[in-house]
Write a structure and sequence with these properties.
single chain; 328 residues; alpha/beta; D-Maltodextrin-Binding Protein, domain 2; 2 domains; six-stranded mixed sheet; five-stranded mixed sheet; globular; disordered N terminus
Length: 328
């Protein structure tokens, strides 16, 4: 069962910054990628084994990477933020990161470059992978009732809290009067039922368990706050990109092809999910999938970066023109 923390903790970013200093002094990550005699380039990719990463597993399974001259090894990360130090240290050359994590790390000085996307946020509440629920016997019946209440989120200071704050404010509920409590995803429903929180902001497939318990749906924060924004992105370091532009372009082309396939063939995603994420087959068959979309633009990036700055979710400045790399 998927249980990945969805934010990059400050400690993770600090580690990445320390590694970045080491990388600059030792040229780690700045060497050309390894290419075999037959012209195949080997890459290690770090990512969290979640639905948003499905296109990469599809690209491996269907030989799409090989078609683009790549031999890709996927290295699953134990937490969402763990992929950032792996990139900076050179343990992996490319990663799939939560867009907000990547932006926060970049603003802190980690030399990341983003060059593609696997998923974007939807504008359809029913299709949003993130949803807010209250207990079935809760006196909270509508969004306005959340004022002054405590909401469980999977990580403080990340995309989940940010999108929820924005959605609350857009809907007329002052988010500064709401308390946010960090709760692990697999403990959220229990916390809700025990009354430790008044509501939970959870994600698919944990939303299925919430609905099965009779929990009452209140809101889809992402669809309200950040529709059509980048969600999960492909990333590398500035050093690796500088000397491996063609390799990065080939990687993006392969993942874009697999992402388009995933968008058109959701059953293929559902079939491969249990193989790498631990999601039971019966749950993978019915859970809400993210919106697979490789349309990678600065406008989609700025939806998040503007809100990150406005709500004080970052120290430093997010330089979108440097962070976002288009057309190789």
């Amino acid at each position: 069962m998927i249980n990945i923390r969805r934010t990059a903790a400050a400690g993770t970013i600090s580690l990445a910054l320390a590694l970045a200093g080491t990388a600059c002094s030792s040229a780690a990550g700045s060497a050309p990628a390894t290419t075999s005699a037959d012209g195949t380039t080997s890459l290690t990719v770090t990512l969290a084994p979640i639905p948003d990463s499905a296109p990469l597993y599809i690209a491996v399974e269907q030989g799409i990477f090989k078609k683009h001259g790549l031999d890709v090894k996927i290295s699953p990360a134990p937490t969402m933020g763990a992929s950032i130090p792996a990139l900076v240290s050179g343990a992996a050359q490319i990663g799939v990161l939560a867009n907000v994590d990547a932006m926060q790390a970049s603003a802190a000085g980690v030399p990341l470059r983003l060059f593609g996307a696997t998923t974007v946020t939807t504008d359809k509440p029913a299709e949003d992978t993130g949803k807010v629920y209250v207990a079935k016997d809760s006196p909270i019946k509508q969004l306005s009732d959340l004022a002054g209440k405590t909401i469980g989120v999977s990580g403080l200071g990340g995309a989940g809290e940010l999108s929820l704050r924005v959605a609350l404010d857009k809907s007329g509920v002052d988010s500064s009067h709401v308390k946010f409590l960090e709760v692990p995803l697999d403990s959220m429903l229990n916390s809700l039922e025990r009354g430790q929180v008044d509501a939970i902001n959870t994600i698919s497939p944990f939303t299925n368990a919430a609905e099965a318990s009779g929990a009452h749906y209140i809101l889809s924060p992402g669809a309200v706050a950040v529709p059509h924004a980048l969600q999960f992105v492909m990333a590398t370091t500035a050093q690796f990109l500088d000397v491996n532009k063609a390799v990065v372009e080939n990687f993006k082309a392969a993942v874009d092809e697999a992402t388009a396939y995933a968008a058109k063939n959701p059953n293929a995603v559902r079939a491969i999910l249990p193989n790498y994420s631990g999601t039971p087959k019966e749950l993978a068959a019915v859970m809400q999938l993210p919106e697979f979309n490789s349309d990678f633009t600065k406008d989609r990036a700025r939806i998040w970066s503007d809100l990150i700055a406005k709500y004080g979710f970052v120290k430093g400045t997010i330089d979108i023109d440097t962070l976002i790399v288009q057309n190789g």
